[in-house]
Amino acid sequence: MDRCELRSVPNRLSPFLSKLMDSYIGSLVRLGGPDVQRGLIEPLKIYYKVGDTEPLTDNWDSFIPADSPKYFTTSVVRRLALTKLFRLGVRRCIGKLATADVDSNNRMYSCPPIGMNTSSWKCRSIFCPNCRMRIANNTWRFLRTRYENQAFEAIPAVVFKADIPFAESRFGYNPVLDDSLMRRISNRLAKVDYFGCKTLGAKVIDKKPVTSVQIALFSDAKNMQFIQNQMTKLQKYMRKNSPEILVSAEIREGLDNICLELYDDTPLCLLALSNEGFYSSFVQHTVEEFKYALAGKKKVLLFGTGV
Fold this sequence. Notes:
By secondary structure, the chain is α+β, with helices and mostly antiparallel strands. It has 2 domains: about 15-125, no CATH class; about 135-305, no CATH class. The chain is about 45% helix and about 15% strand. It has a 5-stranded antiparallel beta sheet with strand order 6-1-5-4-7. Strands 2-3 form a two-stranded antiparallel ribbon. Helix 1 packs across helix 4 (about 70-90) and helix 2 (about 35-50) runs antiparallel to helix 4 (about 70-90). The radius of gyration is 20 Å and the shape is globular. The mean pLDDT is about 95.
């Protein structure tokens, strides 16, 4: 159950997408739990130990040549395992939410792994790791075009990150969003030309969920030090006045590294909050509240004086 049917030879992933996928898998494995074990860890262990892909797909030999490089087959297996876990999450949690409906459940369950079955409809669920990687790839391509005259590995950006803890309730956790953050940044940078990209995600820190806000700020070399100084001041202000929010402001170089910072927190991690698994009412409440809180909000926002 929850296996993927291959329909063509999968595309190879770029180094950036491979790193992003490994980040998602690593985060989920560290969280663990019975359903992560069942849907992700066990199929990977079986493949690594005996080379068996049957738990992931029933037509591997039809589309994966026997002489394929090891890095390619491993990439395909990891994509299939991550998708198997997401499908298990749809069946046991996301598809059982009060806001769920048959059409959206079917789209999520049939959403193909990234780089595979490109004729299928994409579900665009905030919990789908494959669709999050697709959005990340679109952002990477957009930035590559915007800065096509620069060396991609040397492009700098100030990355500002804020991890906002969910509020605990009797039934689970409720996400908290800091709607004033964008206003604070815009006010501090109003006098310089800059371009920003903001993304929303979620992760689990010390077994508690947080809303992850990631913002990458780009500008000319003459403005980068000013932007970094302003974001450092904002970081100090927030640490003093909102100590519960984990904030950081650092310069990152390289298009791959910047986009990894923007997209490495997958909301699928919320399903692994409880040792009871995806069926947990505690988990389902938290996932429902996160889905509701982000409904209608842009998951990727381009802003700034240089837009």
